[in-house]
């Protein structure tokens, strides 16, 4: 199962890593909905079967495989870097035209670093942490701008992001959502349609056809669009969780945990930005 997250959508975790797959099947109960369950040697990106002789994969050449602890630690480092960048930007860059320019520049640099990492065969901690730092600067200025008009909005957005991500993880682990190929196709189709509509809306606003932000206005319609965007963020999280779960189950190398942390960070940033706008909309209507 590939995630819709830009980091995971191109190739998932690395396949050419020199690590043999498991010689045994995954844990009981894991096969349901598992894209590799029917033929793990043929489809498992971490298994290396000897096709010529029909031999099963060889014993692992190393035990240096990704674990959930690795993912948690790298995610904490990446998100911590975002948080430090945001705090410093908030404290050192007062709300002004200059800070807005720096925020836009930081967002562009973060985007470039994200794209470079997405097209690399292996994860680069330097690129990932660099992305996190510049993204943090952008979020710091962006959050301060909202806070200057809607006091406390960033704090509420952080709580909202934690609530959405926590609820999504709970629902996923409880098995209430099954991440299947059909589920992914439908969700990705909706996400693509959403992005196309948002791009058209941006063009209409830029050329003065739509006023007050169009679909992204600070009214009821803008609130509805914000809710849809947050639900899409939760959808991205479920695909990311599945991708990570598959990587751990089939022996991805440890350094791939940086890729997992990168993808989760991008998704959480998406949710936070949309949550911040939603909080501002509801605060404006008080």
How would you characterize the overall build of this protein?
- There is one protein chain.
- The chain has 286 residues and is an all-alpha fold.
- 65% of the residues lie in helices and 0% in strands.
- The chain is built from nine helices and no strands.
- It has helices at 6-9, 40-43, 68-92, 97-118, 125-149, 153-173, 181-206, 220-249, 256-284.
- Helix 3 crosses helix 5, helix 3 (68-92) packs across helix 9 (256-284) and helix 6 (153-173) crosses helix 8 (220-249).
- It is globular and about 55 Å long.
- It starts with 5 loop residues before the first helix and ends with a helix.
- Mean pLDDT is 82; it is low at 7-11, 14-44 and 46-61.
Structural features:
mainly alpha
Write the topology of this structure.
Blueprint: H1 6-9, H2 40-43, H3 68-92, H4 97-118, H5 125-149, H6 153-173, H7 181-206, H8 220-249, H9 256-284
N- and C-termini, Cα separation? 43 Å
Oligomer: single chain
Q: Summarize the main sheet.
A: none
The computed structural class is: mainly alpha
| Shape designation | globular
Strand content: under 5%
Please count the helical segments: 9
Mean pLDDT: 82
């Amino acid at each position: 199962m590939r995630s819709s997250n830009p980091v995971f959508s191109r190739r998932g975790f690395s396949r050419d890593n020199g690590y043999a797959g498991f010689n045994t099947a995954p844990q009981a109960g894991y096969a349901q909905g598992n894209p590799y369950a029917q033929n793990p040697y043929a489809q498992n990106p971490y298994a290396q079967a000897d096709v010529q002789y029909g031999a099963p994969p060889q014993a692992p050449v190393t035990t240096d495989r990704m674990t959930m602890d690795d993912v948690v630690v790298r995610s904490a480092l990446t998100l911590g870097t975002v948080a430090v960048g945001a705090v410093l930007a908030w404290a050192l860059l007062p709300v002004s035209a200059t800070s807005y320019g720096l925020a836009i520049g930081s967002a562009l640099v973060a985007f470039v670093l994200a794209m470079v990492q997405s097209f690399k065969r292996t994860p680069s901690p330097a690129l990932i942490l660099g992305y996190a730092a510049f993204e943090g600067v952008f979020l710091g200025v962006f959050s301060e701008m909202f806070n200057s008009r809607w006091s406390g909005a960033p704090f509420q957005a952080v709580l909202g992001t934690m609530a959405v991500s926590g609820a999504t993880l709970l629902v996923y682990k409880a098995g209430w959502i099954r991440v299947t190929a059909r589920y992914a196709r439908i969700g990705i189709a909706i996400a693509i349609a959403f992005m196309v509509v948002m791009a058209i809306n941006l063009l209409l606003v830029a050329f003065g056809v739509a006023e007050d932000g169009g679909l992204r206005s600070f009214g009821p319609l803008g609130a509805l669009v914000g809710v849809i965007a947050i639900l899409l963020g939760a959808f991205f999280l479920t695909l990311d969780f599945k991708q990570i779960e598959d990587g751990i189950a089939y022996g991805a190398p440890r350094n791939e945990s940086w890729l997992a942390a990168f993808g989760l960070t991008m998704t959480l940033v998406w949710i936070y930005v949309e949550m911040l706008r939603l909080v501002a909309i509801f605060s404006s209507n008080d």
